[in-house]
Structures are given as C-alpha cells and as structure tokens.
Specification:
mainly beta; 0% helix; Lipocalin; 231 residues; four-stranded antiparallel β-sheet
C-alpha cells in the first residue's frame, strides 16, 4: 500500500501500534499533502524491486465523495530513446567490469556503448564491419570489435585489451562468434577465409580455412552439447 507522505504506517506494524491508524497525510488529494504519484515522486510508482513502470496518476480534486484523477503510462524508460542515426548492428548487453552497457553500431560504422539510463555514449571503435559480440575470459566480459582494416579487438570500456589482442586477420570480418566451451573466437572474413583464434590471441592451425565459393548466411553452432560449426 502506498501513502502520499511516503511513511508506511497503514500496512506495517502491530495492531497495538497507534501508527497503524495512518494519518491525514496518507491520501492523495488536491488539498492534501500530495496529489501526484509518478516515477519522479516520493514515494514513486516504481516496482517494489526498483523497476520502472511508467505509471503516473494525478488527482484533480480536493477530498470529496466523488473525485477525478488522470492516469497515464509512459512506455519508454527515462533517458530513452537515444538518437543514434541509422542503426547498423546490435544491440547487445555488456556487463563489463567498469559497468553495464548496451552496445550498438551506427550506420557510419561507429560502435557505441550506452549506459542503461541512456545518459552517456562511450565510443568503442570506428569502421566496424561485424555485429558486436561479448566474449568472457576468466569472468571478465570483453567487447569484440572488428574493424575495416582487419583488426580484431577485445576491449573494455577504457579501451584496454585482453592479453594477446588485437589480432590482424588482413580482411574485414563479417561475423564473429565467441565460444567459451572451445576457448576460441571464430571469424568469418569478407575474403572467404575462416579463422579460429584462441582467447589468448593465438591463431589455431590450420586457420585460416579458405573457401572457393562465396559464403552465404551466418555461422552458428548447431548443438551446444557437441561443439561444431555450420556455415
């Protein structure tokens, strides 16, 4: 039960407590303590666990037998949407050691890591050629950034790299897949080469595997219990 003064006394305590009777400051009314109940008030309309609901209620009348109110619902979280121009790839969720981010790539190829409230966009790389991928190494999540010159980075938000990275594969990467079970990152290149690179940045033999015909579609693992790769 929510009360206008934010003091939880109507549904908390023992029956012998005087406070359980509440007070004149509990009801929402135009001539009372408060008449608006929304995400920005105290108490707010956020869920009990802190989640945003977007619910807003404004009481229009003073205390009476019949009272009017306005109910509205804002479907977007405060700070969103974020204007990025034409989107290219993403979004993906990134739980980095330096905070949580939502990563997306703009139409111009710039990768951006956005804070959950949309208040800050951290540039993560230019001329990105493949969708962003998250790779976990020893409990740390890195962002896989593939750039036009063939450079592949495993970055944190401060642009520090995982040991052994970046790696130059010589051609733009079209798709990257991170496999924790195989301790590898698989790269599908524009020139039809296919790489397997260990999480330490070392290229696995016999990589790269080259294909005579252009590759079409996405690479994927068909079965989690039996690691393999389908092209």
């Amino acid at each position: 039960m929510e009360e206008a003064d934010g003091i939880q006394d109507l549904d908390y305590g023992f029956p012998t407590w005087f406070s359980i009777e509440g007070s004149q400051y509990d009801p929402w009314k135009k001539d009372g303590y408060a008449w608006e109940f929304n995400p920005g008030t105290t108490p707010s309309t956020d869920a009990s666990w802190g989640g945003y609901t977007g619910v807003s209620i404004e009481v229009l009348d003073a205390s009476a037998n019949s009272m009017r109110f306005v109910y509205s619902l804002q479907n977007s979280v405060p700070g969103w949407p974020v204007q990025m121009g034409r989107g290219k790839f993403g979004p993906v969720l990134w739980n980095s050691p330096q905070g949580e981010y939502i990563v997306a790539v703009q139409g111009n190829g710039q990768a951006l890591a956005l804070l959950p409230d949309g208040s800050q966009a951290v540039p993560m790389g230019l001329n990105t050629t493949a969708p962003p991928v998250i790779c976990e190494i020893d409990g740390t999540e890195y962002l896989v950034v593939c750039q036009e010159a063939g450079d592949v980075h495993l970055r944190l938000p401060d642009w520090s790299e995982a040991p052994g990275w970046p790696v130059d594969v010589g051609s733009p990467v079209l798709q990257a897949i991170a496999s924790e079970s195989m301790n590898s990152i698989f790269l599908l290149l524009e020139n039809n080469d296919f790489y397997r690179i260990g999480l330490d940045g070392q290229v696995h033999s016999p990589s790269p595997v080259s294909f005579a015909l252009p590759l079409a579609g996405d690479a994927s693992f068909p079965m989690k219990s039996s690691p393999g790769l389908s092209l």
